[in-house]
Design a protein that fits this description.
This protein is α+β, with helices and mostly antiparallel strands. The chain is built from five helices and eleven strands; from the N terminus they run E-E-E-H-H-H-E-H-E-E-H-E-E-E-E-E. It has one domain: Sulfite Oxidase, Chain A, domain 2. The protein is 30% helix and 25% strand. The two termini are 25 Å apart. This is Peptidyl-prolyl cis-trans isomerase. It comes from Kurthia gibsonii.
């Protein structure tokens, strides 16, 4: 259970994070391109509707048979998972914990009990790196804490084991 990270403190819901399963999460970001590409705010409902529309359009045009392109797409995704470097933006996890109205700070705690404190707004923009070249982080893991601008990408905050909201 070394990979489990809990969000505790001034929250309505204590949240337990397991970075070992994030590789399958659609919200993961490719860190090889994340810090070099322009960030555009994305409405998740709009993305869902667009993806559903594309799916149904494809079903209508191609029928329910599985054309060879679907297998190629799945193989590409599997290959990308096995070779990519990925992270997760923290905003959805912090929001799901439902911080108390008076909560203004988020503190990240490492294995040596060092604390790294950020404002609530800044903490929501931070990322957890959970893999490098398709492998879980074993040295300094389970996650690395990265700033949204990538300024500490080469020298991340390692060994994060807890999050306290206050």
């Amino acid at each position: 259970m070394d990979s489990i990270i809990q969000i505790k403190g001034a929250v309505n819901f204590n949240i337990t994070l397991d970075p070992t399963i994030w590789i399958f999460d659609d919200r993961k970001v490719d860190l090889d391109t994340y810090f070099t590409s322009d960030k555009v705010a994305v409405d998740q409902d709009e993305v869902y509707l667009e993806d559903a529309g594309k799916f149904w359009s494809r079903e209508i045009m191609e029928g329910a048979a599985y054309p060879p392109t679907l297998e190629t797409e799945k193989k590409f995704d599997r290959q990308k998972m096995q070779t990519g470097t990925f992270g997760m933006v923290l905003e959805p996890f912090i929001n799901n914990a439902s911080p108390a109205p008076e909560a203004t700070q988020v503190t990240f705690i490492d294995r040596e009990n060092n604390e790294y404190t950020y404002s609530m707004e800044e903490a929501k923009t931070l990322l957890f790196q959970f893999s490098v070249e398709g492998k879980m982080l074993t040295d300094g893991g389970p996650v690395y804490l990265l700033h949204a601008d990538g300024s500490n990408y080469k020298n991340p905050i390692k060994n994060i084991v807890g999050i306290k909201i206050s």
